Amino acid sequence: MDLTHRPRRLRRDRVRGLVSETSLEPTDLIAPVFVDATTDERVPIESMPGHERVPIDESVARVEEVLETGVEAVMLFGIPESKDPEGTRAWAEDGVIQEALRRITSETDAYVITDVCLCEYTDHGHCGPLEEELRSEGGVAEDGPGCEPTLTVDNDATLEALEKIVTSHARAGADMVAPSGMMDGMVETIREALDGAGFEHVPIMSYAAKYESAFYGPFRDAADGAPSFGNRRHYQMDPANSREAMREVRLDAEQGADVMMVKPALPYLDIISAVRREFDHPVAAYNVSGEYAMLHAAAEKGWLDLEEVALESLLSIKRAGADLILTYFAEDVAQRLPAGQ
C-alpha cells in the first residue's frame, strides 16, 4: 500500500492552524439591532433567544453592548409607533430609525447600516404600497369578465418611497443603506436620490438575491413585519432559481450597488459561491432568523452543541465566499474568536 500521500500530517496540533484556509474575525460580522418606538423597555423576542427589541432610549446602550464584543457594525431595523398603507413613518424625520441613528452615530463609533424596506411600516406588512392586478383564468392580465383583481406591491410607487427613506436615513447619519424589498430598479433609484441630495459617500448594500424563504419566520415576529395576507412570491425570488440570482446581482452592479447580499445564507451557499466567482464586489450574506432559531431549538433539546454549530455555520458561509455576514450569532461568536482562531 502506497502511503506517500498522508493529508493527516497537516491536521496535527500547531500546524493545523497554519494551513487553515478560512478564518473568521469579529470585523467580518454585522449585528442586527431592533429598535421599537412602541415600548419603553426591552422586550425579549421569544422565537430568537438572546435577542430583544429595545426602545429608542436604549438604542445607544444596545449598540455599545455589540461593540464590546469586537463587532464594529450594526444593522438597524425599526418598529414604528404607527402604521399606514403607504408606510409613511419610514421616512419621517422623527421616525424610529431616524431618531436612533442620530443618537447612535453621535455617541458611538459603530458603523451603522440601515435596512431600507417598508414591510415594518405598512399596515398590511408588504414591502410597499399596493395596487390591484387583474388576471384572467389563463394568467394574462386584462380587464373584463372572468378577471379577478389581486393585490400586489406597486413597484414604481415603492421606488418613490425608497428615495425619501434613504435620504432621511443619510441626513440622520447612516453610514450605509441596505434596500431589501427586491423592487426592480431600486438600486438605481436610491443611488440617484443619495447623489442628488449630496450623499455620494454613502454606499449601498443591496439585498441583490433575496429569496422567498420559509426561514424568515422569527424575524417577522421580531420586526412585526409579517404580511397580513398572501405572501411575497411576486417580488422575492423562487428558491429553485440560481441563474436568476446572477441576473439580479448583475443588474444591481450595473445600477451602482457597492456590496451584494445573498439572503438567506446556509440554504444558498451555492449562490454565495457563484456571486463571489463572478463579481468583484464585496459579498454579504444574511444568516437569517430561521437559521439561528433552528440551531437554538436543537441545542435546547440537547441534540447539538450551540457554540460549535454556530461557529461552523458562519465559517461555512465565509468559506463559500462571503466577505460580510449579517448574523444573530455575531456577538456570541465574536466573543469566542480570539481564543478559537
Automatic annotation (TrEMBL):
Active site per the UniProt annotation: 210 (schiff-base intermediate with substrate), 263 (schiff-base intermediate with substrate)
Lineage: superkingdom: Archaea
Keywords, comma-separated and alphabetical: Heme biosynthesis, Lyase, Magnesium, Metal-binding, Porphyrin biosynthesis, Zinc
GO biological process entries: protoporphyrinogen IX biosynthetic process
GO cellular component terms given for this protein: cytosol
Pfam families named among the record's database cross-references: ALAD
Catalysis performed (reactions): 2 5-aminolevulinate = porphobilinogen + 2 H2O + H(+)
SMART domains recorded: ALAD (SM01004)
MF terms (GO), sorted A to Z: porphobilinogen synthase activity; zinc ion binding
Presence of keyword Lipid biosynthesis: no
EC number(s) stated in the UniProt entry for this protein: 4.2.1.24
Residue numbers binding Mg(2+): 248
Binding site for Zn(2+): 117, 119, 127
Binding-site list for 5-aminolevulinate 2: 289, 328
Binding positions (5-aminolevulinate 1): 220, 232
Gene3D superfamilies found in the cross-reference section: Aldolase class I
Subunit structure: Homooctamer.
Family: Belongs to the ALAD family.
Protein name in the entry: Delta-aminolevulinic acid dehydratase
Organism annotation: Haloterrigena salina JCM 13891
